[in-house]
UniProtKB/TrEMBL annotation:
Recorded catalytic activity of this chain's protein: Hydrolysis of alkylated DNA, releasing 3-methyladenine, 3-methylguanine, 7-methylguanine and 7-methyladenine
SUPFAM superfamilies: DNA-glycosylase (SSF48150)
Family from the record: Belongs to the alkylbase DNA glycosidase AlkA family.
Swiss-Prot/TrEMBL keywords: DNA damage, DNA repair
Native organism: Limnohabitans radicicola
Domain HhH-GPD residues, every copy: 28-180
CDD domains: ENDO3c
GO MF terms, alphabetically ordered: alkylated DNA binding; DNA-3-methyladenine glycosylase activity; DNA-7-methylguanine glycosylase activity
GO terms for biological process, alphabetical: base-excision repair, AP site formation; DNA alkylation repair
Protein name: DNA-3-methyladenine glycosylase II
Biological classification of the source: Bacteria, Pseudomonadati, Pseudomonadota, Betaproteobacteria, Burkholderiales
The EC number(s) this enzyme carries: 3.2.2.21
DNA damage among keywords: yes
Amino acid sequence: MKKLIPQFGDAILESRGDAFVTLARSIVGQQISVKAAQTVWDRFAVLSRKLTPAGVLKLKVDDMRAAGLSARKVEYLVDLALHFDSGALHVKGWADMDDEAIIAELVAIRGIGRWTAEMFLMFHLMRPNVLPLDDIGLINGISRNYFSGEPVSRSDVREVAQAWAPYCTVATWYIWRSLDPLPVAY
């Protein structure tokens, strides 16, 4: 970390958008390129005057499909909107909930897995000590920066990250910067 932080000292980790939009964008962007995701998102976002859970629930499936969303992603976005709209998510309580409790709420939504929930904790809720063990960028970055490019296991990642606590989010972000200096916005 002593070598990485000075290289990227001016860049900062920032939260963007509201919780619903952040999660909706993550669903739209799954398994497609960043450019394709932005194109689909732009088409999807104009379907509703304001992108809210209630607004998404009013959209027609055919219109969402015409925007470039797969049938599965339409299902996921509707489920996300239903979870927000019904109050099944404790959005106002997230500030007082621990990371694992929030992850448990989020993974109950179709189309959101642990990695997406962890990205949400990091980039939206700005939780300081998230270690996304399934993130290939983190694994590759630790391999490159700590093990001279040799393959690393999850236990290797945990061992390296012990020194980062309670700021694993920040350290992960610097590891990602070591692989790609341009920060990704979620």
